[in-house]
Amino acid sequence: MEFITVQGLKKEYTVYEKKSLFRRNKRTIEALKGVDFTVKKGEFLGYIGPNGAGKSTTIKILTGIMNPSDGIVKVGDYIPYKDRKKYVQNIGVVFGQKTQMWWDLPVKDTYELLKGIYKVDDKKYKRQLEYLVDKLFLEDILNHPVRQLSLGQRMRAELGACMIHDPEILFLDEPTIGLDVVSKHKVVDFLQEINNKGKTIFLTTHDMKDIEKLCNEMLVLNHGNIVYKGKVDQLKTITDLPIKVIAQMNINGEDNNLNRILSKHHGKYDKIKNQLVLNVKTKQDTSEIAKNLFNNFTVEDFKVEEPSIEEIIKLIYTS
Ligand SMILES: Nc1ncnc2c1ncn2[C@@H]1O[C@H](COP(=O)(O)OP(=O)(O)OP(=O)(O)O)[C@@H](O)[C@H]1O
């Protein structure tokens, strides 16, 4: 079932640039140029793109903060920018670079204010708070003012805040930005846990490791257009970046079999390091090569290196 539907989404910003004391130029920035995608209920979607691609603009429109210039946007039964008041009862939002909590209040007071704003009944609030304290390790920070928290503690508190009303969907804009490894683990594990429980998550991040770990689907945005949508692991099949086969093996003199492998797979044999490096097109090729090498040579070490998601993304961004 589609939960989010976006069709032909466009957003233009008008900016004025000062030309002289009395004159200014009007310029239109096309931040989104007709974006289409759907997100299913329970999906964990990674939304990525280089700086200025239009990710924040999309999130602002999806969360009802901003109107689109054109196109259709539907989340559940709502049109975010039209039904804003009712709509926000059903969503949770975290902007990693901004706090949405009351800076001077203890975390718990913010939660209680949110309880009132979202009209969460006492029993449900108590249950949800217990759950969040347990899963986000909030016990020690509940009574601390937000301004005293470390970035990692604050992010856990923010995630708790956006879950007080137990929304169906979360929009997270860079929730792990600047976090150390331990804090990041806690956030990532929590997101995995709530997605396993059925929450739909729309995540923007520059961190490919988070995307690989968490997301089943991904959208890649570049210059206001979607340039890839599909499974995270399938991304590896859309570029022709080679798979590297690296073998440690000692070869004396000329060997016709080796020469054939080298020319077929654009490879090199380094006689000083005793190392063979091949650039292979498909995974099937790698098992054939392994068979051939192990049958015909003394192979001390053999490894296959697939292109990383970072390399693929870099290629997509620059093409
Ligand atoms: N309020 C605004 N007024 C004018 N131009 C804007 C405004 N907000 C964004 N833009 C422009 O729209 C384009 C898309 O910006 P957006 O912030 O959505 O990108 P982004 O993918 O979120 O980038 P980043 O990763 O740097 O946050 C950029 O060219 C940006 O300069």
Cα-based radius of gyration, to the nearest Å: 25 Å
Biggest sheet features: 6 strands, mixed
Name the helicity range.
25-40%
SS class: alpha/beta
Write down the secondary-structure element order.
Answer: EEEHEHEHHHEHEHEEEHEEHEH
Bound molecules: adenosine-5'-triphosphate
- What CATH calls the topology of the largest domain is Rossmann fold
Question: What's the structural blueprint in terms of helices and strands?
Answer:
Layout: E1 2-18, E2 24-40, E3 44-48, H1 55-62, E4 70-75, H2 84-87, E5 91-95, H3 107-117, H4 122-136, H5 151-163, E6 169-173, H6 181-196, E7 200-204, H7 208-214, E8 217-222, E9 225-231, E10 243-249, H8 256-264, E11 268-270, E12 275-280, H9 283-296, E13 299-305, H10 309-318
Helix pairs in contact: 4-5, 5-6
The structure holds adenosine-5'-triphosphate.
GO molecular function: ATP binding; ATP hydrolysis activity
Pfam families: ABC_tran (PF00005)
InterPro entries: AAA+_ATPase, ABC_transporter-like_ATP-bd, ABC_transporter-like_CS, ABC_transporter_ATP-binding, P-loop_NTPase
Verbal overview:
By secondary structure, this protein is of the alpha/beta class. It has 2 domains: 2-237, Rossmann fold (3-Layer(aba) Sandwich), CATH 3.40.50; 243-318, Alpha-Beta Plaits. 34% of the residues lie in helices and 30% in strands. The chain has 10 helices and 13 strands. The protein has helices spanning 55-62, 84-87, 107-117, 122-136, 151-163, 181-196, 208-214, 256-264, 283-296, 309-318, and strands spanning 2-18, 24-40, 44-48, 70-75, 91-95, 169-173, 200-204, 217-222, 225-231, 243-249, 268-270, 275-280, 299-305. It has a 6-stranded mixed sheet, with helices on both faces. A 4-stranded antiparallel sheet has the order 11-12-10-13, with helices on one face. A hairpin with a 5-residue loop joins strand 1 (2-18) and strand 2. Helix 4 packs antiparallel against helix 5 and helix 5 (151-163) packs parallel to helix 6 (181-196). The mean pLDDT is 92. The structure holds adenosine-5'-triphosphate. The site of adenosine-5'-triphosphate (ATP) has 12 residues, from strand 1, strand 2 and helix 1. Pfam families: ABC_tran (PF00005). InterPro entries: AAA+_ATPase, ABC_transporter-like_ATP-bd, ABC_transporter-like_CS, ABC_transporter_ATP-binding, P-loop_NTPase. This is ATP-binding cassette domain-containing protein. GO terms for molecular function: ATP binding; ATP hydrolysis activity. Keywords: ATP-binding, Nucleotide-binding, Transport.
